[in-house]
């Protein structure tokens, strides 16, 4: 927990924070040890002025007494604004505090948000803690800060914070991914969250970030298996215009029972349109109808049975000509122009960074 936290001291800020946490847990010896090691580290890095400041803080802490000293308190209060780090100011504000609200310690700019919450939970009374958390919630909500998620007590509160964050920043990416990780399925289907998700998906499509879009859809399906991702790209028949996909056609038999999807016999490859039974288009390289096995590679150096990907429908997004993936990759390994006679589209150079592996 926070009372046993050890911060890695690699900078002045980390040294100050670690020292303050030690003092808040009334472990003055550990605080002095942290300051000594930090002082030595800063001296090695030629931070002489910062090292001297830490030495003075160490001396001041060592002079603290639980019985209280008006002279020590007076000197510290007069010098507290000269301290180099806000966490050190909170440290001495804690040691010189005379009221139970610790208002100077909990000032917004002195400690990190999590440290202020931990301090309040440790030292404030129940009534003061409730008031403090209510004020922090209102402040974070007005700022649209995601730190408010740590104080949200319900999904409704979390939605409020995320909406305020989106209103302030327009960052629908962050709001979408946070929603996928913290909300149940019913909240994901609410109008507000659905709008974030759909806008983010549209943005990824417009930026041609299709891999990231696919990752989003996969995560969305995992978060809510009932979510129906709208089919946006499919292969249509040239004759009837319907999708040639057999998805779902083999799931239910004539008797109404589910077929065995794992059976090899059930995994039939579409060689004709399932709707009108017209043949599928021909491969632009081998001139064999799509859906037919593409066979062996014609190259003697790479002669092998092609992988399943080699039989997939592949086409150029510009001229719409295509064929077996294995044949097109082999064609464009030595050509840049489309294999269809009369087509001058330079398909092979449209995406030079693309790396496709058939293995």
Rounded to the nearest angstrom, the distance between the terminal CA atoms is: 49 Å
Q: Looking across the biggest beta sheet, what order are the strands in?
A: 1-2
Q: In terms of structural class, how would the helical and strand content be classed?
A: mainly alpha
N to C succession of SSEs: HHHHHHHHHHHHEEH
The 3D shape can be described as: elongated
Q: Give me the count of strands.
A: 2
Q: Give the mean pLDDT.
A: 78
Largest β sheet strand count, sense and barrel closure: 2 strands, antiparallel
Number of helices: 13
Descriptive report:
- By secondary structure, the chain is mainly α.
- Helix content is 45%, strand content 2%.
- The protein has helices spanning 12-24, 28-44, 48-62, 70-79, 86-95, 113-123, 126-143, 155-169, 172-182, 185-188, 191-206, 210-223, 325-332; strands spanning 313-315, 322-324.
- A two-stranded antiparallel sheet has the order 1-2.
Topology:
Blueprint: H1 12-24, H2 28-44, H3 48-62, H4 70-79, H5 86-95, H6 113-123, H7 126-143, H8 155-169, H9 172-182, H10 185-188, H11 191-206, H12 210-223, E1 313-315, E2 322-324, H13 325-332
Helix pairs in contact: 1-2, 1-5, 2-3, 7-8, 9-11
């Amino acid at each position: 927990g926070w009372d046993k936290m050890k911060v890695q001291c690699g900078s002045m800020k980390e040294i100050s924070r670690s020292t303050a946490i030690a003092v808040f847990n009334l472990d003055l010896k550990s605080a002095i040890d942290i300051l000594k090691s930090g002082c030595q580290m800063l001296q090695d890095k030629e931070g002489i002025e910062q090292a001297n400041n830490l030495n003075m803080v160490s001396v001041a802490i060592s002079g603290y007494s639980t019985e209280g000293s008006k002279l020590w308190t007076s000197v510290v209060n007069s010098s507290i604004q000269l301290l180099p780090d806000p966490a050190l100011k909170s440290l001495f504000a804690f040691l010189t505090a005379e009221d139970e609200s610790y208002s100077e310690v909990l000032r917004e700019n002195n400690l990190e948000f999590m440290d202020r919450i931990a301090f309040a939970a440790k030292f404030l009374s129940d009534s003061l803690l409730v008031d403090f958390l209510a004020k922090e919630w209102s402040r974070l909500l007005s700022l649209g800060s995601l730190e408010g998620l740590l104080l949200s007590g319900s999904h409704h509160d979390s939605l409020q914070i995320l909406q305020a964050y989106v209103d302030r920043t327009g960052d629908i990416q962050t709001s979408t991914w946070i929603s996928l990780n913290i909300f149940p399925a019913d909240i994901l289907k609410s109008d507000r969250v659905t709008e974030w998700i759909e806008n983010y998906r549209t943005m990824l499509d417009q930026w041609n970030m299709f891999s990231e879009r696919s990752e989003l859809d996969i995560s969305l399906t995992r978060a809510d298996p009932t979510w129906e991702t709208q089919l946006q790209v499919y292969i249509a028949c040239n004759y009837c215009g319907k999708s040639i996909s057999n998805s779902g056609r083999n799931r239910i038999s004539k008797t109404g029972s589910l077929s065995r999807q794992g059976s090899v016999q059930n995994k039939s490859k579409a060689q004709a349109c399932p709707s009108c039974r017209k043949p599928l288009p021909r491969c632009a390289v081998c001139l064999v109808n799509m859906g037919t096995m593409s066979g062996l590679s014609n190259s003697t150096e790479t002669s092998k049975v092609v992988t399943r990907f080699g039989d997939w429908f592949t086409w150029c997004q510009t001229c719409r000509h295509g064929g077996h993936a294995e044949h097109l990759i082999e064609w464009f390994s030595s050509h840049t122009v489309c294999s269809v006679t009369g087509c001058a589209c330079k398909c092979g150079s449209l995406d030079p960074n693309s790396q496709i592996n058939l293995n």
